[in-house]
Each structure stands twice: as structure tokens, then as C-alpha cells.
Design goal:
The chain is α/β, with parallel strands linked by helices. The protein is built from 17 helices and 20 strands. The chain has 4 domains: about 150 residues, Resolvase, N-terminal catalytic domain (Rossmann fold); about 120 residues, Hect, E3 ligase catalytic domain fold, CATH 3.90.1750; about 180 residues, no CATH class; about 55 residues. Strand 5 and strand 6 form a beta hairpin.
Length: about 575
């Protein structure tokens, strides 16, 4: 009975598929199996197309790794044969890693058959002829040295290109909103307006997902250039069809917007920054000052748990917390009605609590009409201080590089750019610390809350609220035997960025309709540290809690549409 054989072929780059590599390896493997009377399995094929063997990617992510796993899990019976063009198709990694792979296959009962030279490696052949081990070691070492040499030459070539970057374009591969025309990097026609619109949306408080939706709604195509995708034996011209949030964020976070080129190098773990950034390599679309403001606006949205409903933009996204379980509230629509719902309750991790969003929003704006919000609640001092610290480190590294390589004029340009950025950031920090309190109120924007369909304006309003408010803590209780008759009591405490606290109470029927609110300027208890016993002791009057007293008189609300309107 002939031995079952499996063909393994590999080449490093996708474009080699359209050369002779795949045909040559497959044809020669089939001819070899026929000549050696091996039963070649033509159903199960192990092909690594465009997968490098230099860092064992074909073993960790490719078909060779799947073959070895199938052998160890006994999904492929041994003994069997693995036919390869040469040992460098198995691995080009360091000698120790490559040789361990070679031994793993041999010990697992796999015979390795190479076509060039024609050698059969197996437990028996290695035992009878130890020279096979020396031959395998020599081939694996040679394969690694070839790849190391190519990698070294490529790195040196890129170092030379970076040194000449101030006078010459290094590569035609540039950010998608740019293009290289006659050796000069230019902004694509009509693209600058789109990028600036994206930046303005981000400054107005829109997230990357909303920006992508707006771009798709306006029919604006992505910046990506058409490229060739290889599917089986066909070449297809492909272009990214629509915008998505990841692509939007990659554009807004790119330092190329202010003209800076950041050099990278490839390592075993991925891309890593190398050298110092090159200023004004790309055409500028933003000044460094404008770019810093953009990054601060994007960073301010981080950590904002919660989501918008499909029918209304939640003005308090990421700001509302449950005093009982410390989880967040999000906006959820049930039919035509929006509710603020505690996340843990909706996930079944605790008691479910909710309040009608419309009434809650109105109660909030009644409070901010009564309370004049003073100070500059949005303190970005820590953001600017962190940016200055980062710039100081980069300046120090650049100075060290100048001492080592005094002939590189691009390093001096980088140092000037970094010091200019630091001076601008210090100016922003001083302005932040010296801001004079300006009385302000959200009352003039109340009209925006009446039009839920005006999403753009509501998102701008949400950004303003996020600048004023640090967090909002809710304590929701209800009373009533029948669900439809339940009266919901919502005790909301608002913590402003300047440390001030205000609160309001909202009473509403679960079924909707009657609403009552009350405001308290100076809260006696901090809901962030909620404890039922201490809370009752603080707020109880004549043995009754405020919500209990209201429940007793709630029947009066039946005759009122809205006592506050």
C-alpha cells in the first residue's frame, strides 16, 4: 500500500501568484508523487499564498500550522508524506526555530520529501544516514541567511530614503487623501473640503460612527484608491465601497494631517516607530495647534459608555450612572417612547430600572434654567500637561539623535517643529489655567430639545453638556401594586466639572402622563456614595421619605396634565 502524500507550497507575496511559482511547485509535486508511487491527496491541499516564512507566520497563522495541528490531533493519519519544493518553503526563520519545526514533523511520523534536491527525511533515514541531519541544518541556515540579508538591505535602503526625505519623495505609498504626481505629493482634488468637514464634525462632538454615516448619506466615496484583489485565478479591481468608523478614526488620528511623516519598521510583533518624525513631508491640511485641539476633542469622548436610541440622540450619553449598582444608563426606545435604562438591569445582572427620557430631559433643563452655571467646567490642564511631557521626551530623543548624527539636517527641522509645538501647547495650558469665569446657561439651547429629529444640533448640545457636567447619578424607585399604576420616583444628582452639585426629583407614572418635579440647590447627600440607611436618615422627614410622601398624594396628579408646563 502506497504512502499518502500531501503537497505543501508557499510563496511570500501575493503578486507571486501571478508568476510561475504556484504552477511550478504544484506540477513538480504531482510529477514527483507519480514517479515515487506516492498516493497524492488532491482534495486536501496545504497552500500558503503570500505568507512569509521568515518569522514563521506560515506556522502560526497559515496552512503549515493547520497541517501540524491535524497531525497532532490525529485528524491526518501517520505515517504520511509531506512534499515540498525545498526546506526553505517550510521555514526561513532562525535556525533553532526552523530545526525544531523540522524535528516536530519527523517525530510526528511525517516523511519530508524535497524536490530540490530530491531527499527523503524520515526517522529511519536520519537514523541510517546522519548526514541528512547536516544537510537539513545547512539548508535551513542558508534560507535564514538569505532572508536576513534581504531584510538588512531593505532596512538600509529605507534609512537612506528617510535621510533624503526632505528633498525627495520616498515612496508613492501615501495617505489616501494624497497622491504623488510627477514626484510631488499633492492633495487629491476636492478632498481637502471633505477632510475639513470631518474635522469640524469631530470638534462638534460627533463620533466616528456618526461621521461615517453622514459621509455615506451624502454619497461621498472613501479616499482609498482602487486596488487589485486576487480571488482564485482572477484579478478583480476593488475599491472600498463605504465609510466605516475605523477608517474615519484612522484619518482623524493621522499626524499626516499636519504634514508630519512618522517612519515605521516591521518587527516580529508588527510595526514599530523608528527614528524621528519628519515635519512638512506631506501637504498640511491642519496646523499643529488645530490638530492638537482635534485630538483633545476625540479623546474627550473616550470612556463614554452608553448608546443612542434609534429615534433620539441621547444628550447625556456616558454621563448617567446608577447610584445603586454604579452601572451606566443608556437610551432605549420601546415603540415611540424613549427610556433611560440601567445597563446591568437590561443584561439581567441586577434589578431593572428605567425612567422616561423625555420627562428626564425636560427636568434637567428646568434645573439649568434655575441654576446659573458659572465657571469653566471643562478643565483640559491635565491633557496639555501630558502633551508637554510627551513633547519633552521626543525633544530629548531628537537632541540625542543630533549628537550621534550631526549631518542629518532633517533632525534639526524635527527639533524646531517639536519645540514650536511645545511652545504652542504651553500657551494653551496657560490660557486654560487663567480662564476667567464666564456665567453661562443652557437655557438658550432649550429649543434644541424640542426637535428630536434635529440630530446634528442635539449632538452639538450634547458636546456642550459634556463640557459642563462630570456625571449624573440616579436613584430610581417605584410604588404601586399594579405595573400600570406604578409611580416612578427619580432622584437625580448632577456633578459639575467645577465640583458643584445640584439635584432634582422627578415623579411620573409608569404608564406616562402626569409629571411633577422639584429642585434642590444644595444636596445634603452624595449619591455617588449611596447607602440605603444613611440616605434614609439624611432625607427622612417625620418618618417619611420624600418619595413616600409624594406617593401618598400622587392621586392629585391624575387631574393634571403636567404641573410644570
Amino acid at each position: 500500500m502506497s504512502l499518502t502524500a500531501y503537497s505543501y507550497l508557499r510563496f511570500s507575496t501575493p503578486r507571486q501568484q501571478w508568476g510561475d511559482s504556484q504552477r511550478r511547485q504544484a506540477t513538480n509535486s504531482a510529477a514527483y508523487c507519480e514517479r515515487k508511487k506516492l498516493d497524492l491527496n488532491t482534495v486536501i491541499k496545504f497552500y500558503d499564498k503570500g505568507v512569509s516564512g521568515f518569522h514563521s507566520k506560515n506556522l502560526t497563522e497559515g496552512a503549515l500550522g493547520r497541517f501540524l495541528t491535524a497531525i497532532k490531533e490525529k485528524k491526518i493519519k501517520t505515517p504520511c508524506a509531506l512534499v515540498v519544493e525545498s526546506l526553505d518553503r517550510l521555514s526561513r526563520d532562525t535556525l533553532d526555530e526552523a530545526f525544531y519545526l523540522f524535528l516536530d514533523l519527523i517525530r510526528a511520523g511525517v516523511e519530508i520529501h524535497t524536490l530540490n534536491p530530491e531527499v527523503q527525511y524520515s526517522k529511519q533515514s536520519v537514523k541510517e544516514n546522519p548526514a541528512h541531519i547536516m544537510l537539513a541544518v545547512n539548508d535551513l541556515w542558508r534560507a535564514n541567511r538569505e532572508s536576513e540579508t534581504k531584510s538588512y538591505r531593505s532596512r538600509e535602503n529605507w534609512i537612506r530614503k528617510r535621510q533624503m526625505a526632505t528633498d525627495k519623495v520616498m515612496t508613492k505609498k501615501v495617505p489616501h487623501w494624497l497622491e504623488v504626481v510627477d514626484g510631488v505629493i499633492q492633495v487629491k482634488p476636492g478632498v481637502e473640503r471633505i477632510v475639513l468637514k470631518m474635522v469640524q464634525w469631530a470638534l462638534d462632538g460627533l463620533g466616528s460612527k456618526r461621521i461615517a454615516q453622514n459621509l455615506n448619506k451624502e454619497g461621498i466615496p472613501p479616499f482609498t484608491n482602487p486596488y487589485i484583489r486576487h480571488l482564485e485565478d482572477k484579478e478583480i479591481l476593488y475599491q472600498k465601497p463605504v465609510w466605516d468608523s475605523c477608517y474615519v478614526m484612522s484619518v482623524l488620528r493621522s499626524r499626516a494631517l499636519m504634514g508630519e511623516y512618522t517612519p515605521y519598521t516591521r518587527t516580529r510583533v508588527g510595526r514599530e516607530k523608528t527614528g524621528t518624525p519628519i515635519p512638512d513631508y506631506y501637504p498640511r491640511l491642519l496646523t499643529p495647534k488645530a490638530f492638537n485641539r482635534l485630538q483633545i476633542a476625540i479623546s474627550a469622548r473616550k470612556g463614554k459608555l452608553g448608546r443612542d436610541s434609534d429615534k433620539v440622540a441621547n444628550l447625556f450619553k456616558g454621563l448617567v450612572f446608577d447610584a445603586i449598582d454604579k452601572g451606566t444608563f443608556y437610551c432605549n426606545c420601546k415603540g415611540y417612547t424613549a427610556f433611560l435604562v440601567n445597563r446591568n438591569g437590561s443584561l439581567g445582572k441586577g434589578e431593572y430600572r428605567s425612567i422616561r427620557y423625555k420627562e428626564f430631559e425636560k427636568a434637567f433643563f428646568r434645573l439649568v434654567q434655575v441654576v446659573v452655571l458659572t465657571p469653566n467646567e471643562m478643565d483640559n490642564s491635565h491633557v496639555y500637561e501630558a502633551a508637554i511631557g510627551d513633547l519633552d521626551k521626543r525633544i530629548m530623543k531628537t537632541k540625542e539623535a543630533i549628537i550621534k548624527h550631526p549631518k542629518f539636517s532633517s533632525l534639526l527641522d524635527t527639533l524646531v517643529m517639536l519645540e514650536t509645538q511645545r511652545a504652542e501647547t504651553v500657551t494653551l495650558l496657560e490660557a486654560e489655567k487663567n480662564k476667567t469665569p464666564v456665567q453661562t446657561s443652557l437655557a438658550e439651547t432649550k429649543r434644541l430639545t424640542i426637535a428630536p429629529e434635529d440630530t446634528e444640533s442635539r449632538l452639538k448640545l450634547r458636546q456642550r453638556i459634556a463640557e459642563l457636567v462630570d456625571s449624573m447619578w440616579l436613584l430610581i424607585t417605584d410604588n404601586g401594586k399594579q405595573k400600570s399604576a406604578k409611580v416612578v420616583h427619580c432622584h437625580c444628582q448632577i456633578i459639575f466639572k467645577n465640583g458643584d452639585r445640584r439635584e432634582f426629583r422627578l415623579f411620573t407614572r409608569r404608564s406616562g402622563g402626569s409629571v411633577a418635579t422639584s429642585h434642590i440647590d444644595e444636596p445634603a447627600y452624595d449619591l455617588r456614595n449611596y447607602d440605603p440607611k444613611k440616605y434614609r436618615k439624611t432625607y427622612a422627614v417625620n418618618g417619611m421619605m420624600p418619595d413616600e410622601a409624594s406617593f401618598a398624594a400622587i392621586d392629585m396628579l391624575k387631574q393634571l396634565k403636567d404641573v410644570q408646563e
